[in-house]
Amino acid sequence: MALTILVTGATAGFGAAMARRFVRDGHRVIAAARRTDRLQALHAELGAAVLPLALDVTDEAAVAALPDSLPPEWRDVDVLINNAGLALGLDPAHKARLADWDQMVAVNVSGMMHMTHALLPGMVARNRGHIVNISSTAAIYPYPGGHVYGASKACVTQFSLNLRADVVGLSVRVTDLEPGLVGGTEFSVNRFGGDTTRARAVYAGTVPLTADDIAEAAFWVVNLPSHMNVNRMEIMPTCQAPGPLVIKRS
Ligand code: 8X3
């Protein structure tokens, strides 16, 4: 049965890959993003299975009005993929820009919460739904320069687990996807303020995950039998592993 899937951050990276993956198998995607030119391009590429939706997840009023502002035939959202998110900077905390911290919290935490607040009540009322939150391995494993990015993703992960506690027993699922090193997206370019040389260096000598890999994971968790809930899924490329703990010696 065709599902209606709302993806935030739908015009780049994971979001665009997810839109393509779900449409390929006959599902309908509400593609939410800020950049209208890219939305139109995605719409032109994928056709009527996509509803382009100009939306900034930090616009509280627009997000709150979302359920009622969708065309009636698109209102019963089956799956919300909270994908919009970003990392800004990799300097140590004592050199970081406060504005960068605020923006990461606004998008990664508040945006994700507001979208959930807008769409979860309808899912509970229909006793049908799935929230897929895109967290990160940075939620669990610290690294230098990760400070607020990692903390924001830890909030996404814990929020996801706590949502499960509230909807337990209902046919409403919650999944926290935690990707590690993923190349080929704007993520690192954005992190380094458009410095493509620095961004490219992040992936030098590696075979990172791709946006399509993450889209495949999202597609899989959503299409499992409805009684199966993947709570957390941590994904790394084979060239990446957690640890070891560091001991700094003099
Ligand atoms: C992205 C993974 O390691 O660049 O969420 O923070 S990492």
Note the topology.
Layout: E1 4-8, H1 13-24, E2 28-33, H2 36-46, E3 50-54, H3 60-64, H4 66-69, E4 79-82, H5 98-126, E5 129-134, H6 147-167, E6 172-179, H7 187-191, H8 196-202, H9 211-222, E7 232-235
Parallel strand pairs: 1-2, 1-4, 2-3, 4-5, 5-6, 6-7
Helix pairs in contact: 1-9, 5-6
The structure holds 2-hydroxyethylsulfonic acid (8X3).
Short description:
With 250 residues, this protein is α/β, with parallel strands linked by helices. The chain has helices at residues 13-24, 36-46, 60-64, 66-69, 98-126, 147-167, 187-191, 196-202, 211-222; strands at residues 4-8, 28-33, 50-54, 79-82, 129-134, 172-179, 232-235.
Provide structural commentary.
By secondary structure, the protein is α/β, with parallel strands linked by helices. It has a single domain (4-235), classed as 3-Layer(aba) Sandwich (Rossmann fold). The chain is built from nine helices and seven strands, in the order E-H-E-H-E-H-H-E-H-E-H-E-H-H-H-E. The chain has a seven-stranded parallel β-sheet with strand order 3-2-1-4-5-6-7, sandwiched between helices. Strand 2 (28-33), helix 2 (36-46) and strand 3 (50-54) form a beta-alpha-beta unit. Helix 1 crosses helix 9 (211-222) and helix 5 runs parallel beside helix 6. It is globular and about 65 Å long. The model has no long low-confidence stretch (mean pLDDT 97). 2-hydroxyethylsulfonic acid binds next to loops.
